[in-house]
Amino acid sequence: MLFKQQVWLRQKLLVLGSLAVGSLLYLVARVGSLDRLQPICPVESRFGGAHSQAELPLRALQFKRGLLHEFRKGNSSKEQAHLHDLVQQLPKAIIIGVRKGGTRALLEMLNLHPAVVKASQEIHFFDNDENYAKGIEWYRKKMPFSYPQQITIEKSPAYFITEEVPERIYKMNSSIKLLIIVREPTTRAISDYTQVLEGKERKNKTYYKFEKLAIDPNTCEVNTKYKAVRTSIYTKHLERWLKYFPIEQFHIVDGDRLITEPLPELQLVEKFLNLPPRISQYNLYFNATRGFYCLRFNIIFNKCLAGSKGRIHPEVDPSVVTKLRKFFHPFNQKFYQITGRTLNWP
């Protein structure tokens, strides 16, 4: 009799223990990191407007991860969006470039911040005449649902080099914040070439070697007609933007440093956007297999960038690399002077 009671008691304890563990895991999944359980996330914005000094509980901002995902999938109605005070806002900041500078990595990392909501796809509103003709409301409806106190950010790298874009963005919002992420110009040009080469190979098409495209065979000088080279002359494109926006509305992100030391770069962006510091080393972990940092939203949800990121570059003739770096050097010096940020480029 005593033995049966002991067995029954053990079974009860096991059931209770399972329930307790299950409840704990549920709470962990819901709460996540909650930025180390700080109760309030003040979103003090320089952007102005009715919500510039608003405060939103961090629990609500963290909960938006799941809630907003449902809206993006189209699983909720506009009435439900209104019930949760969700809106589709025009971006208060745009990552305007540079192609192959790390725009996707920057956007995904900024999305770690509970006060930031990202547009998942490149909208190409300002650089595409057909899209631009559809009007600003079409653009707004392409934005994700968010709380009014949050900042919506989109990225389209083609914006930086497209002539019409600065004026078009200025007409939408003359005080918008503009993020430019750059890499060492020669490395960026080779990365640009590598992406195009991979696309050609997938279609079983041949493509010229990088050296033949980057160097004019007739003059043996750098071929400035080659788009990958032109894109890396950052100062030429920036000067066009400065006709519409003061330099204070730009923030330069070091794309090379974002690869090796992402946290300091992200903290600078937080400061530029006037966001409370929330992204920490906890949110970033180095994946030795993939060779770059991945993202940790909480102890349940981690994310790495797509496998297409971090492509292996083809070997390039060292003399061509040297010639390109010598060519870019004066443009780089001017870029440092204009932006006030010196980068460790050769």
UniProtKB/TrEMBL annotation:
Catalytic residues as annotated in Swiss-Prot or TrEMBL: K100 (for sulfotransferase activity)
Binding annotation for 3'-phosphoadenylyl sulfate: K100, G101, G102, T103, R104, R183, S191, Y293, K309, G310, R311, I312, H313
Compartments (UniProt record): Golgi apparatus membrane
Family annotation (InterPro entries): NST/OST, P-loop_NTPase, Sulfotransferase_dom
Main location class: Golgi
Catalyzed reactions: alpha-D-glucosaminyl-[heparan sulfate](n) + 3'-phosphoadenylyl sulfate = 3-sulfo-alpha-D-glucosaminyl-[heparan sulfate](n) + adenosine 3',5'-bisphosphate + H(+)
Enzyme Commission number(s) from the entry: 2.8.2.-
Annotated Sulfotransferase domain residues: 91-335
Top-rank lineage group of the source organism: Eukaryota
GO biological process terms on file: heparan sulfate proteoglycan biosynthetic process; negative regulation of coagulation; regulation of viral entry into host cell
Coiled coil: none
Enzyme class, UniProt record, top EC level: transferase
Keywords: Disulfide bond, Glycoprotein, Golgi apparatus, Membrane, Signal-anchor, Transferase, Transmembrane, Transmembrane helix
GO function term, MF aspect, one: [heparan sulfate]-glucosamine 3-sulfotransferase activity
Designated name of the protein: Sulfotransferase
Organism: Mesocricetus auratus
Gene designation per UniProt: Hs3st5
